[in-house]
Amino acid sequence: MTRPTGMNTFKLKKKLNFLAVKRGQKLFVYVVLFTMLSFFSVFFFAPFFKGLYMSFHKWQFLGTPEFVGLKNYIYAITEDKLFLNSLKLTGIYCLEVVSLSTLLALFVASLISRAGKLMYFFRITYYLPLVIPLVISAILWKALLQVRFGVITRSLFHRIQPCSLLRTVALAALCV
Fold first, then answer.
1. Contact in structure between 161 and 154 (CB atoms under 8 Å)
2. CA 149 from centre of chain
3. Per-residue pLDDT band at 23 (split at 50, 70, 90)
4. How many CB atoms sit inside 10 A of residue 153's CB?
5. Going by C-beta distance under 8 Å and a sequence separation of 6 or more, which residues neighbour residue 153?
6. Beta bridge partners of 58
7. Could you state, in order of their start, the residue ranges of all structural domains in the chain?
8. Residue 110's closest CA among 101, 119, 98, 120?
9. CA pair distance 56, 25, nearest whole angstrom
10. Do residues 65 and 53 touch, judged by C-beta distance below 8 A?
11. Quick check: pTM over 0.70?
12. How far is CA 134 from the centre of its chain?
């Protein structure tokens, strides 16, 4: 086995040291993984398998379920016209949405990254809808928290002298 050129063993061990995890860090990783897997199993696996179990039974709202096997699936594929039509429409919709949104995204990305006179125009028109709601929200909150005419300030300080809730950092942080 040959050594990597230009790198001694100490540097290689130091680079691979990020894989070594301390005992407390391992416990944290296990707790986070257990929490994530438990939520995932409760909200994904349990409903999935319950729905799969229900699909093999004939269910009345009240009463015990009757096992019918694959009869529900055979009925859906062979006799139910709505199921086949909805399956066809769902497939067409997915193909159209995925292909058109991908093409549109590639087109917009090429317009934004293309060097030229219109590059800045396309960048502004692309990012403006992301920025405008934040600016409008900031202006509205500033108006609502205004000292003299702000609705929130007036309702909080109805009978006493109103004060500015945005004057200090601590009060502004509470308001946000």
1. no
2. 38
3. low
4. 20
5. 144, 145, 146, 147, 162, 163, 164, 165
6. 66
7. 21-70, 123-176
8. 119
9. 45
10. no
11. no
12. 19
Q: Which of 74-78, 102-106, 158-162 has the lowest mean pLDDT?
A: 158-162
Calculate mean pLDDT across residues 97-123: 85
3 state DSSP class of 67 = strand
Question: Please, which residues bridge with residue 36 across strands?
Answer: none
Residues in contact with 139: Cβ distance below 8 Å, sequence separation at least 6, in sequence order:
none
Placement of tokens 């960048």 in the chain: 123
CB-based burial of residue 150 (10 Å sphere; 0-12 exposed, 13-18 middle, 19+ buried)? buried
Q: Which two tokens stand for residue 140?
A: 């509205």
In DSSP terms, 143 is beta-bridged to none
| Amino acid (1-letter code) at residue 72 | N
The DSSP annotation for 25-54 comes to HHHHHHHHHHHHHHHHIIIIIHHHHHHHHH
* CA distance linking residue 172 with residue 176, whole number of Å: 6
**Residue 122: its pLDDT value, please?**
80
Cα angle at 108 between 105 and 112, to 5 degrees? 135
